[in-house]
Write a structure and sequence with these properties.
The protein is mostly beta strands. The chain has a single domain (23-278), classed as Methylamine Dehydrogenase, Chain H, CATH 2.130.10. It is 0% helix and 49% strand. It contains no helices and 26 strands. It has strands at 23-24, 32-38, 41-46, 51-54, 59-63, 71-77, 80-85, 89-93, 100-103, 110-116, 119-124, 140-146, 149-154, 158-162, 169-172, 179-185, 188-193, 197-201, 208-211, 217-223, 226-231, 236-239, 246-248, 256-262, 265-270, 275-278. The protein has a 5-stranded antiparallel sheet, with no helix packed on it. It has a 4-stranded antiparallel sheet with strand order 6-7-8-9, with no helix packed on it. A 4-stranded antiparallel sheet has the order 12-13-14-15, with no helix packed on it. A hairpin with a 6-residue loop joins strand 18 and strand 19. It is globular, with a radius of gyration of 17 Å.
Length: 287
């Protein structure tokens, strides 16, 4: 996940939310930074405290987050959505409609969030990992969970691993540029990032690094037997194993920052409220 803009901080301690009316397509021009699926609902988040929900990826309803800062990432686990963003703040919701703000003991921007082993882990600027700095001072952009391991990635080709989300170890990947997103699927961890870099690992320790041949890749997910990555200029690419990626025709030219799968639908979101959907990861349209 990559940041596309930042507005001023404004934090509410506890929030009651009123849903807006559903419309086809998005109802915002704010940059959308993250998207996730859970409880039969897509939740998209972004700049200006924007939160949108949809049952199918096509008809979206705006929700009131109660904050005006950038919301960078969202995940679903333990029967709730968790959103991370500026100022070290986290928002939680069981349905995507009613939200509560939870303060963390960090002022760093949080850029990624994942759930695994009954634990939510957030990562962000200055090497922040939840309540641990992970032994790093560079920014971390995303985190995933798979095969019993959390894997966080960030600037300088950095990868960190943890079994419990508390104790972290740095791993040398051999990549020079920044990783922007990471996902696990088909027995493989895959990280993507600047200049189209792709790194693969089956154990989160030894990584194979290569160029995808595409521009900056900013978001990644694994679903329906394939890795799907999105990025600069509306780039959409896919791979069955995270090695060779093939281009998909994109209906937008805006940067796409994140992608998720649920309800038999892929949804990717990005700059200026850009959103694209696909039933198979091959053919993409705007909702």
């Amino acid at each position: 996940m990559v940041r596309q803009g930042r507005s001023s901080l404004a934090v509410a301690a506890a929030l009651l939310i009123t849903a807006g009316c559903a419309t086809t397509g998005t109802t915002t021009t704010s940059n959308l930074q993250g998207v996730a699926f859970g409880a039969s609902t897509f939740v998209a988040v972004g700049a200006d405290g924007v939160i949108l929900t949809s049952p199918d990826g096509h008809a979206w309803s705006p929700q009131t987050s109660g904050v005006s800062f950038v919301l960078d990432a969202v995940t679903y686990g333990d029967n709730r959505f968790v959103v991370a963003g500026d100022g070290g703040m986290v928002l939680t919701s069981v349905d995507g409609v009613t939200w509560t703000a939870v303060a963390l003991l960090t002022a760093s921007t949080l850029q990624g969030v994942a759930f695994g082993n009954d634990t939510f882990v957030t990562v962000g600027d200055d090497g922040t990992i939840a309540t641990s700095n992970g032994g790093s001072s560079v920014s971390l952009h995303d985190v995933t969970f798979g095969n019993g391991e959390f894997v966080a990635v960030g600037d300088g080709g950095l990868a960190l691993t943890s079994a419990d989300g508390g104790s972290w170890s740095a791993v040398e990947t051999g990549a020079a540029g920044a990783f922007r997103s990471v996902a696990y699927g088909g027995g493989t961890y895959v990280a993507v990032g600047d200049a189209g870099v792709v790194a693969r690992s089956t154990d989160a320790q030894t990584w194979q690094v290569a160029s995808s041949g595409f521009p900056n890749l900013l978001g990644l997910t694994y679903a329906d037997g394939q890795f799907v990555a999105v990025g600069a200029g509306g780039t959409i690419v896919a791979s069955p194993d995270g090695s060779a990626f093939a281009a998909r025709t994109s209906p937008v030219v805006e940067d796409l920052a994140a992608v998720a799968f649920g309800g038999a639908t892929f949804v990717a979101v990005g700059a200026d409220g850009a959103m694209v959907v696909s039933a198979d990861g091959l053919t993409w349209t705007t909702p």
